[in-house]
Amino acid sequence: MKTAADAPTMPGTPWRTAPFRRFATAQLVSATGTAMAPLALAYSVIEQGGGAGSLGLVLVMNTVPTIVFLLAGGLFADRLSRSRILFLGNLLAAGAQAALAVTVATGQATTTSIAACGFLSGTAASFTVPAALGAVAQIVAPEHLQRANALLRLPGNAVRVLGPVAGGLVVAATGAAWALAWDAVTYAVAACLLLGLRLGAPATPRGGVLADLRAGWSGFRSRTWLWTYTAAGTVLVAAWLAGFQLLGPLVAARDYGGARDWGLVQAAFACGLLAGTLVCLRWTPARQLTVAVAASGALALPLAAMGAGAPLALVLPAAALAGTGLDIAIVAWTTAFQRHVPPGEQGRMSAFNGVGERLAVPLGYLVTALAAHAWDTRGVLLACAGMIAAAAVLNLCVPDVHRVDRRTGHDGPTVPG
Question: Looking at residue 359, what DSSP letter applies?
């Protein structure tokens, strides 16, 4: 049976291939809902009287399954059809967001019910994330990967510019339920589009589950650049999510203009993401991993600005710079990963990376929520910013990070581009 991987690839133009267009369209549709979801989730907790502790619990329950099930998701992505995994994962996420929207709309939402829906959404993500990373490498030729990764992020980031503002207005005017319902609809549409990809399973030697996991772990440990990047990400991701997702909405509600101003901050962040994507369409750095590590340090800027009590006029450009740095980091990292990890191992390698980066997130949420009660919230934000900067600097001190070159691939053989 012919798969998307058999489709011809046009030089420099992955958008001309039908499978890539279908995949990118699904990403775009889903992004129109995802852009509103974090704000809607935060204010669905706030609307039912929850504070830092309740929001922290909800975010933890969204993160826990990505730790518990991500290894299984990576294993399946190396053994099964990635398009089918993407279809089922998006369908599960649609059901979880629809259930959440109904409970919020009917006034039946509690911290427990919101957390339960978040658990289902996190479970879906644990299977779709490694499958999506490998699917791109199946659809696109190696020399076009950076352009493809940037193009995939371009329409979604464009949507995110207006999405948070629209989400803030919707939440402020009607409550969180409508934004959550729209997120559910977009997941369902994306699921149908992704099912049509019809990607075959990777051509990977099949052993037992434990044997495959042991082989994956051995491959992960053997790549110093990969496990050190993951170790730094353990600190960086936890500090960023705890500072921005947990404390950000609460600080906006207390010190700024609530949902409206937090929507503006997220929109500025999204503008930065879009700018980062445009940079990646024009600039192809040789040392892609070095660029990814350095650019990720920009995430400290908006947390430092809010922690210092800066006015909104300064927080907004700080958020924009953070978004620019993050998108450059994501595109550079994704491309380096796809070039230097063989296709049949990408599911497991991305799962080990994902588990490592998320390992400290639940603890970070809980510790940050407790610290926000015991100490000044601004001081906690400054601590989060300091941790992000330190993680980036220390990772740049690893020599192997600077040896990951875009002109080589799959741990050695030269690739075009």
Answer: T
Q: If you search the block for the tokens 């990070």, which residue do you land on?
A: 401
Quick one: how far is CA 246 from the chain centroid? 16
Q: Which domain holds residue 355?
A: 4-201+208-403
Cα–Cα distance for residue pair 350/41, rounded to 1 Å = 27
* Residue 414 β-bridge partners: 408
How far, in Å, CA of 126 to CA of 371, rounded? 29
Does residue 411 lie in a domain region? no
Q: How many helices (H) and strands (E) does the chain have?
A: 18, 0
Count of the separate structural domains present in the chain:
1
In whole angstroms, what is the distance from residue 185 CA to residue 33 CA? 8
AA letter at 408:
T
d(CA 37, CA 14): 29
pLDDT in tens, 115-126: 888 889 889 988
C-alpha span between 268 and 263 (Å, rounded): 9
pLDDT at 289 over 70: yes
User: Minimal CA–CA distance to 183: which of 62, 51, 39?
Assistant: 39
Q: Is residue 408 part of a domain?
A: no
Q: Give me the CATH number covering residue 166.
A: 1.20.1250.20
The predicted model gives 130-146 an average pLDDT of 81
Nearest alpha-carbon partner for 276 in 335, 318, 330 = 330
Is residue 48 assigned to a domain?
A: yes
CB-count burial class (<10 Å; 0-12, 13-18, 19+) for 68 = middle
In the chain, the N- to C-terminal Cα span, in Å, equals: 30
The reply to whether 88 falls in a domain is yes
